[in-house]
Design a protein that fits this description.
This protein is an alpha/beta fold. It has 3 domains: 3-84, Orthogonal Bundle (Arc Repressor Mutant, subunit A), CATH 1.10.10.10; 91-161 and 268-298, D-Maltodextrin-Binding Protein, domain 2, CATH 3.40.190; 162-265, D-Maltodextrin-Binding Protein, domain 2 (3-Layer(aba) Sandwich). The protein is 41% helix and 21% strand. It has 12 helices and 11 strands.
């Protein structure tokens, strides 16, 4: 089996199209069809169901594809490591991140990475969770920084950290003078929140519902920065990730109110394509964020010798919404 044939098969499986796979690899559609036919003959099984539109994999094809993307990913990673050994890392590193991670974590992370690898140009663009995932799958971004990360057939998700969600309010809000509140104190309040379609909002709603708290979300946004601004302008309150409001809490622009009965965290993670593992630069950037090697099968191993994770310091526990 030739490496190119295996890569063509993976592209067909990803695009569900012979013509699109041929276009990607710069060959004719007949050449792609012939390559798959030869592969099926070698294995003695049918890999692709050609009777459906778009094309679909057979059970054997699905099994073969799942294992193949892992093998090819490791091969390309090894080839990158060998070819880059002994030379400095250069070039661009495209990274996609959800708004709150991009604005809260990326400035410090990019600064630290530039100090370690000055010839690598880290390019970041922001979007919703869905947009970041699509960008990674399409190859527009090498790494994606998302909340509620999940692995799939197309992407690998590596757990990064669990970020506390805080109850915050304007200094002019009725909650601002309280050092701590109980869930019943929040019942019926008007707040600013995330859009109801977002997973973070659904998690917040679930926690509030279990505590018997009803919140009237007057304004909803798809990003944390807009919520911060709306809380300040409308002298309102809301639930936000800790890193997002760290600066405003420090300078007094927002107050953080403890509510230990409501425990909320959102999981953050790093994603990348199964079929195209990160380059050396991507691997090092992801490892720097994690504080351990960017390897899914090593997630639970301790890595004391690796660099410290690039995360923001937590707010003082006395102002926490969670116990």
């Amino acid at each position: 089996m030739q490496l190119r044939t295996l890569e063509i098969f993976c592209e067909i499986a990803r695009r569900r199209s012979f013509s699109k796979a041929a276009e990607t690899h710069g060959v004719s559609q007949s050449a792609v069809s012939q390559a798959v036919h030869q592969l099926e003959q070698q294995l003695g099984v049918q890999l692709i169901d050609r009777s459906t539109r778009p094309l679909s994999l057979t059970s054997a094809g699905d099994t073969f594809h799942s294992g193949l993307v892992e093998i090819l990913g490791r091969y390309h990673r090894l080839a990158e490591e060998v070819s880059s050994a002994g030379r400095e890392m250069t070039g661009q590193l495209p990274i996609a991140a959800i708004y709150s991670i991009g604005l809260s974590y990326m400035p410090d992370a990019k600064e630290e990475f530039a100090r370690l690898y000055p010839d690598v140009d880290v390019r970041t663009h922001y979007g919703s969770n869905e947009v970041v995932i699509k960008d990674v799958i399409a190859g527009h971004a090498e790494l994606g920084l998302v909340s509620f990360p999940r692995s799939s057939k197309e992407i690998v998700a590596v757990a990064w950290q669990k970020e506390p969600i805080r109850l915050v309010c304007s200094p002019a809000h009725t909650l601002a003078d309280k050092t701590e509140v109980k869930p019943k104190d929040l019942d019926g309040l008007e707040m600013v929140g995330f859009e109801s379609s977002l997973e973070l909002r659904q998690m917040i709603d679930s926690v509030l519902r279990r505590s018997g708290v009803r919140i009237d979300f007057q304004n909803e946004f798809d990003n944390a920065d807009s919520i911060v601004r709306a809380i300040q302008v409308n002298e309102s309150a809301g639930f936000l990730p800790e890193a997002v409001i760290r600066r405003e809490a420090a300078n007094g622009a927002l107050r953080v109110v403890a509510c230990r009965a409501l425990s909320m965290t959102r999981p953050l993670g790093i994603i990348f394509r199964r079929s195209d593992r990160p380059s050396r630069a991507g691997y090092e950037f992801g490892s720097m964020l994690l504080g351990r090697p960017l390897e899914p099968d090593r997630e639970k191993r301790s890595s004391g010798s690796h660099r410290k994770a690039a995360t923001n310091p937590s707010l003082d526990n006395q102002t926490s919404i969670v116990a």
